[in-house]
Automatic annotation (TrEMBL):
One of its GO terms (cellular component) is peroxisome. Gene3D superfamilies: 3.40.50.970, TPP-binding domain (3.40.50.1220). Residues 181-307 form the Thiamine pyrophosphate enzyme central domain. Its cofactor is thiamine diphosphate. It catalyses: an (R)-2-hydroxy-long-chain-fatty acyl-CoA = a long-chain fatty aldehyde + formyl-CoA; a 2-hydroxy-3-methyl fatty acyl-CoA = a 2-methyl-branched fatty aldehyde + formyl-CoA; 2-hydroxyoctadecanoyl-CoA = heptadecanal + formyl-CoA. Residues 344-500 form the Thiamine pyrophosphate enzyme TPP-binding domain. This is 2-hydroxyacyl-CoA lyase. Keywords: Lyase, Magnesium, Metal-binding, Thiamine pyrophosphate. Residues 18-128 form the Thiamine pyrophosphate enzyme N-terminal TPP-binding domain. InterPro entries: DHS-like_NAD/FAD-binding_dom, HACL1-like, THDP-binding, Thiamin_PyroP_enz_cen_dom, Thiamin_PyroP_enz_TPP-bd_dom, TPP_enzyme_TPP-bd. GO terms for biological process: fatty acid alpha-oxidation. SUPFAM superfamilies: DHS-like NAD/FAD-binding domain (SSF52467), Thiamin diphosphate-binding fold (THDP-binding) (SSF52518). Pfam families: TPP_enzyme_C, TPP_enzyme_M, TPP_enzyme_N.
Length: 521
């Protein structure tokens, strides 16, 4: 059929345009590109007009299948597919597809023809952009547009038709920042976390951000049936093969665009721990808190919220595991490890590896604080004679360092290239952060109100080293720690002290979960 014939098909007189064509053009303007359906009176013209404006039309054999197809196109492309049906039975058949699209949270527009109406109601043309918006904004879903038959065949002046501009892509909403921080901290303190990836995450194109989160934080993940493939199934962190166990033993579950419905056993015991903490990320406020009471709810787009979590993770203070993980990564295998402190020594022992006998010195049988720098000096002197170049790493708690800190002068006097690490939590076992310390002093003199465990927060122990000419570093992030360790270990002539600030209350004991040690989350 020639262009002019085509035009004649839906456009009658010169300068006039049919209702069908207006509908088709309005859809095309909204970037709707696929139409499924079964034609009949009065919608046949709409299908023809759709083809004319460049929308693909796929004629199906039952409206239900057409509606399923249109909704799947919506999920796959992010723009709603159209299901075109006739009034009465056609519409009834499409109900299954609409319900399914709604349950799946997939965008869909169903257009049904209906019997003629008086021309006064023609403003309904303007409803199209709203239909597109409501199908893709917020939680995606089905919407239905009723087109009276006389609309389809009506001829109007081209000049009188105004197409509403293509609606903007769905606005991206982010979660409340305080909730994001709480979530980051809950994840970090989890013993057995689990990320569940649902089809909401797939629809949100959140694959990059979720993979980064899973890999950076070494989190195990489980996809739902249609969450499969957001991260490849053969990824080492995928625990799909142990699905039941993963669900049953998780103490923290991060739900990314998945609902706690029957597919996930409603999030309830016995399939889950009774006290499992859910962190629920969903774009639909009504979904939050459904079936369980989540520890944290994050209302927003799963991709945006995952990025927020990644950014928030960076601002969290380090904990022991993070510190020791990065230290262990860089320790020379043949080095001496001297260690003293409480948590610093206990947790450090589980993470820092020794490969040689007589190369670890710590508080020993008597549990003595104050031995560290003396031991380190001895090791450095022996190493100098026996094995020049062999390094001595002295890992001190901030309290432990205080017992013999002045021996730094000795270290500098003899120019012993010891790497001193002070793992600083502002106290013995635990301390206060700067703000809490200040707040506390409002209630009285430090001698009466300060918990005996507290030391002065934010003490710059590295200055003890620089005072005598060695290198001093003050570090607060994993990146700063890695860099200062690299520099200290590369310097084979000068001693250095790295003052490592960690979470003041981060006194968690060692756990048998290697991933805990590997990141800042
Ligand atoms: P699954 O079957 O994979 O578990 P569900 O259909 O149960 O997935 O859950 C999908 C969830 O994803 C829905 O609650 C929906 O509101 C949500 N969702 C859809 N799009 C987004 C998005 N962009 N960001 C966050 N959540 C989304
Ligand atoms: Mg689900």
């Amino acid at each position: 059929m020639s262009e002019s014939n085509l035009a004649a098909r839906s456009d009658g007189l010169e300068g006039q345009v049919s209702g069908a064509r207006v509908i088709a053009q309005a859809l095309k303007t909204q970037d709707v590109n696929y139409m499924f359906g079964i034609v009949g009176i009065p919608v046949t013209e709409i299908a023809l007009a759709a083809q004319e404006v460049g929308i693909r039309y796929i004629g199906m054999r039952n409206e239900q299948a057409a509606c399923y197809a249109a909704s799947a196109v919506g999920y796959l492309t992010g723009r709603p597919g159209v299901c075109l049906v006739v009034s009465g039975p056609g519409l009834v058949h499409s109900l299954g597809g609409m319900a399914n699209a709604n349950m799946n949270c997939w965008p869909l527009i169903v257009i049904g023809g209906s019997s003629e109406r008086s021309q006064e109601t023609m403003g309904a043309f303007q409803e199209f952009p709203q239909a597109v918006r409501s199908s893709i904004y917020g939680r995606p879903g089905a919407c239905y547009v009723d087109i009276p038959a006389d609309f389809v065949s009506l001829q109007v002046n081209v000049s009188s038709v105004k197409y509403v501009e293509c609606c903007m892509p769905p606005p991206i909403s982010m979660a409340e920042t305080s909730a994001v921080r709480v979530a980051a901290s809950v994840i970090r303190n989890a013993k057995q976390p689990l990320v569940i990836i649902g089809k909401g995450a797939a629809y949100a194109h959140a694959e990059e951000s979720i993979r980064t989160l899973v890999e950076q934080c070494k989190l195990p993940f489980l996809p739902t049936p249609m969450g499969k493939g957001v991260i490849r199934d053969n990824h080492p962190n995928c625990v799909a093969a142990a699905r039941s166990r993963a669900l049953q033993f998780a103490d923290v579950i991060v739900l990314l665009g998945a609902r706690l419905n029957w597919i996930l056993h409603f999030g309830l015991p016995p399939r889950y721990q009774p006290d499992v903490k859910f962190i629920q990320v969903d774009i639909c406020a009504e979904e939050l808190g459904n079936n369980v009471r989540p520890a944290v709810t994050l209302l927003g787009d799963v991709n945006a919220v995952t990025k927020q979590e990644l950014a928030s993770k960076k601002s969290l203070p380090m904990n022991y595991y993070t510190v020791f993980y990065h230290v262990q990564e860089q320790l020379p295998r043949d080095c001496f490890v001297v260690s003293e402190g409480a948590n610093t020594m206990d947790i450090g022992r589980t993470v820092l590896q020794n490969y040689l006998p007589r190369h670890r010195l710590d508080a020993g049988t008597f549990g003595t604080m104050g031995v560290g720098l003396g031991f380190a000096i001895a090791a450095a002197i022996v190493a100098k004679d026996r094995n020049p170049g062999q390094r001595v790493i002295c890992v001190e708690g901030d309290s432990a360092f205080g017992f013999s800190g002045m021996e730094v002068e000795t270290i500098c006097r003899y120019n012993l290239p010891i790497v001193l690490l002070v793992v600083n939590n502002n106290g013995i076992y635990q301390g206060f952060d700067k703000d809490s310390w200040k707040e506390m002093l409002k209630f009285g003199d430090a001698t009466t109100v300060a918990p005996p465990m507290c030391l002065l927060p934010h003490s710059h122990y590295e200055h003890v080293m620089t005072a005598f000419g060695g290198k001093g570093y003050f570090v607060q992030t994993p990146e700063e720690l890695q860099k200062s360790l690299r520099q200290s270990l590369a310097d084979t002539t000068n001693p250095s002290l790295i003052n490592i600030m960690i979470e003041p209350q981060g006194t968690r004991k060692a756990q048998d979960f290697h991933w805990l040690t590997r990141s800042n989350l």
